[in-house]
Amino acid sequence: MKLTNKVHYLLLLFIFSCITTSGKQVDTIKVFSQSMNAEIENVIILPENYNQQTQFPVIYLLHGYSGNHKAWLQIHPGLPDLATRYGIIIVCPNAKNSWYWDSPIDPAMKYETFVAKELVSYIDSNYKTIKNKKGRAITGLSMGGHGGLWLGFRHTDTFGACGSTSGGVDIRPFPANWEMSKAIGSYNENKERWNEHTVINQIYRIQSGAPAMIIDCGTEDFFYEVNEKLHQQLLYNNIQHDYIVRPGGHNGAYWKNSIEYQLLFFHLFFTSAN
Question: Is pLDDT above 80 for 8?
């Protein structure tokens, strides 16, 4: 069948529109951090219907040690489809190997301030978001699992929900690992500081109003025991949370599976909260 010029033009326009929409669904942006005087790269994933609604909830998705803002898309290339399925915006910041702390010894490392304040403010100012904690969640893997709970516990006015997958939720059993000493000093010389900078010792901050929370870890993961201890501490303090344990190690296959459960959890939170 021969196409008329008009039909051919409309078909090409439709194909081009689909390609353009798909291409714009994932973008990399630089956000200036005043606290660090630096431009920070972030991946932004928008749902396909972004132009059809006025507000969307946001999930801040944190990478692990040695990762960057691109890590989650490499682990799960289907994140744009999940963003569309659940009607969410996903933001993946590059926090280097900071453990998402404001370092007490390195003034150039202020990633708690950047993610919880500067980045949230930028996203709310430049995207169609729900601009309160009922429309924000934060989670991540490994170092980012620590970050998801560290920031979620310490900024309950910003994040209504938080999570961790394979998270380093108690850093103290690992004093020589993952460059943590560069951010908070050596363990032997700064034990009090290490006690103050571990997630499991931040539970007191949420006893009077915990965010919605999901935590999971594989049974073969080297962080399994500290996740079990955190779970028990949350139970002891009567803090509601979803806790999932299943076979798996500290690897991409586990995280790809895990994040689908977490995104569903946050979707249900957003649906009930708004």
Answer: no
